[in-house]
Amino acid sequence: MSADPVYPLSDSDLQAIRSLTSAISQKALEGDWSSLVQLFTEDAVLLPPNSPAIRGREPFQAMIESFNPDFTEHRIDLQDIQGYGDLAYGWGTYTETFSIGGAPEPITDVAKLMFGFRKQPDGAWRVATEMWNTDLS
Questions:
Q1: How far is it, in rounded angstroms, from Cα 55 to Cα 20?
Q2: What region does 23 belong to: left with phi over 0, alpha with psi -120 to 50, or beta?
Q3: Is 78 helix (H, G, I), strand (E, B) or coil?
Q4: Is 114 helix (H, G, I), strand (E, B) or coil?
Q5: Residue 19: which residues within 8 A CB-CB, separation 6 or more?
Q6: Does the pTM exceed 0.70?
Q7: How far apart are CA 118 and CA 123, in angstroms?
Q8: Other beta carbons within 10 Å of 63
Q9: In the structure, what pLDDT confidence band is assigned to residue 4 with cuts at 50, 70 and 90?
Q10: Which residues neighbour 86 within 8 Å (Cβ) at sequence distance 6 or greater?
Q11: Stretch 98-109: mean pLDDT, rounded?
Q12: Which helix (DSSP H) or strand (DSSP E) does residue 62 occupy?
């Protein structure tokens, strides 16, 4: 018995993944945390710097709501996307500017990130894993 062939990502898959990361930025700018977490798989794993892993949508939403950044800039620039079938990964950079309670001035962060993407049964791509770290010292 031979395995099913694995096909590289199509142009429409690549466009869908880029649209997904654009939607993440848009939801962050809107402060729409419940919609933002829906762009991730239910079992998504986030790997923030200097913190334990966050597993699942509910803990992710609780984390971002406790932080509650007010973004004025959020831009993801994927440098590369690779994948086959229903799995893909991408790496790139992001730039964000946000205010948080207690901070005297807005914070601008420039950083690196890596995503793992998984195509869902309905054909939509979602983030399954995300890891990031700042370039700031």
A1: 20
A2: alpha
A3: strand
A4: strand
A5: none
A6: yes
A7: 10
A8: 15
A9: low
A10: 118, 119
A11: 92
A12: helix 57-67
DSSP character string of 3-28: PPP--BPPHHHHHHHHHHHHHHHHHH
> What is the C-alpha separation between 30 and 50, in angstroms, rounded?
26
Note the pLDDT of residue 34: 97
What is the pLDDT, as a whole number, of residue 5?
A: 63
The identity of residue 94, as a single letter, is Y
Bin 108: left if φ > 0, else alpha if -120 < ψ < 50, else beta: beta
CA distance 137 to 129: 25
**Pairing relation of β-strands 40-47 and 54-55?**
antiparallel
Six-digit token string for 23: 């939607």
Token look-up 């079992």 returns: 43
